Amino acid sequence: MQHHHGEQRHVVNKTFDEIPIGESASLTKTLMPEDVKLFAVLTGEINPGVANPEYSHSGLFREVMAHGMWSGSLISTILGTQFPGPGTILIDQSLHFARPVNIGDTVTITVTAKQKFAHNKHILFDCAGTNQEGLEVVRGSAEVLAPSEKVSHLQEVYLPEIHIDDKHERYTQLLQRVKGLEAIPTAVAHPCDRESLKGPVQAFQAGIIEPILVGPENKIRAVAEEFGIDLHGIRIVHAAHSHDAAALAVSLVRTGDAEALMKGSLHTDELMGEVVSRAAGLRTSRRISHVFLMDVPTYHRPLLITDAAINIAPTLEEKVHIIQNAIDLAHVIGIPEPKVAILSAVETVNPKIQSTLDAAALCKMADRGQIKGGLLDGPLAFDNAVSIVAAKTKGIKSAVAGHAEILVVPDLESGNMVAKQLEYLANALTAGIVLGAKVPIVLTSRADTAETRTASCVIAALVAHANRNKGAQ
Question: How far apart are CA 24 and CA 128, in angstroms?
């Protein structure tokens, strides 16, 4: 939303005596998506024809339209700020709404002085609003008490920036990504508490995965019973305890019964121990790594942060795998050439800071084709990676700076902090996935919301479908 930092305006009003009958003034404004949301927030009215694009497609009106009073409110804006201006008091207003105003429409409101009443200083105005095609959207009249004192001065106008968070909308868009795709059979290891059972069941009801619950059957059923979770149509494979469940879930993947793996209420190490086991695990030639996918409302692109959950202090060699895994994931979610920022605390190579040396080497390796499919730059400090202004100030000329889609962190601690800050302070929509094994793995933390769990299942399903397509080629 545009905002003006202390813009100066010359404020002049017209007193009762200065306004001749027939004089008019106009105001023009274009309806933006934010205006519709703001108006709904202010008035508390969420009219399905206004707020829901699906509904408005159905019948009379094709697009999302403004609340009728939005154009009505422009009339009081012009009367109160322009003509007559400051000091005006609205006494009476009548409105007729001739046609809807859709997002993108430009409305011009004109108010014309029609009658003056000397005994009480009231003025009656004719009000009319037309859209960009000259068609009438609103008409009516307004009676005001005109200002008696002249106002003429420079005024500082400061309008704060307003953000309306649309997290639910972003979540719904993510779910759209798997619409029409077959649900992916997913082995869920030891889902024996409320959250870890609710996650896969929710993803099942949304048609994203086909869960196979692996664990003590009586325990799983008891949890479902206690929290009213419907297990109808979901397969359960009995395992004696969590360790057994981890091994069984991994073996379901090895035999091809499952094409994705999901952590339940057991410890991450317990599940990953089975995944990386040399004999019976799911290793590939790649190092296993974790990616947080974040949709941050204040940033113009998706952000992939890696690795903030598995590799504690990765070596240069491990970082090559971590980056390649993330680039491959970016391709799967529709970013053909992801911009990869190798993060450090500074943007210059400093022999005393190991992560800057790694960054320089990784960028050179990409130049030599040892890392493929992305555009790498580094070392970059976090601000330069995500802000063009910061990058320009530091004199960095780079296609990545300010537009990064993959953030490669120097170690697990820094990465975890960045990801959690974005989730909890910037209201990022989060999903997490483990890559580099034979199948995608959803590692959820106990604090994760059902939304995060479902979002992670969407990403796992997209990766599994990409694996199917690779296998079919």
Answer: 11
User: What are the C-alpha distances in Å from 229 to residues 27, 192, 193, 199, 399?
Assistant: 56, 12, 11, 10, 48
| Closest among 379, 383, 415, 396 to 299, alpha carbons compared | 383
Alpha-carbon distance 200 to 327, whole Å? 27
pLDDT tens digits for 310-351? 999 999 999 999 999 999 999 998 899 999 999 999 999 999
* Helical pair 450-472 and 316-332, crossing angle rounded to 10 deg: 90
Q: How far apart are CA 60 and CA 108, in angstroms?
A: 24
Q: Running DSSP on this structure, what letter comes out for residue 170?
A: H
Token pair belonging to 463: 């990766």
User: Which pLDDT does position 302 carry in this prediction?
Assistant: 87
SS3 7: strand
CA pair distance 217, 206, nearest whole angstrom: 23
AA identity, residue 264: G
Pairing of strands 339-344, 303-306: unpaired
Residue 247 near residue 224, CB atoms below 8 Å: no
* Nearest-angstrom CA–CA distance, 101 and 136: 10
Exposed/middle/buried for residue 395 (C-beta within 10 Å: 0-12, 13-18, 19+): exposed
Decide: helix, strand or coil at residue 15: coil
What number of other Cβ atoms are within 10 A of residue 285's Cβ?
Answer: 6
**DSSP string over 318-363:** HHHHHHHHHHHHHHHTT-SS-EEEEEESSSS--TT-HHHHHHHHHH
Pick 394 or 322 by higher pLDDT.
Answer: 322
Residue 116, CA atoms < 13 Å, CB-side half-sphere: 16
Q: Please state, in angstroms and rounded to a whole number, the distance separating the CA atoms of residues 303 and 402.
A: 12
Nearest to residue 407, comparing CAs of 451, 374, 364, 444?
Answer: 374
Q: Is the pTM of this model over 0.85?
A: no
The β-bridge partners of 127 are 111, 140
User: Closest Cα partner for 294 from 285, 286, 302?
Assistant: 302
Of the candidates 200, 187, 277, 283, the residue with the CA atom closest to the CA atom of residue 457: 200
**CA angle centred on 168, ends 163 and 171, rounded to 5°:** 120
pLDDT tens for residues 271-297?
Answer: 999 999 888 889 999 999 999 999 888
Place of tokens 């999302």: 64
| Range name among 161-170, 313-322, 364-373, 411-420 with the lowest pLDDT average | 161-170
Name the average pLDDT for the chain: 87
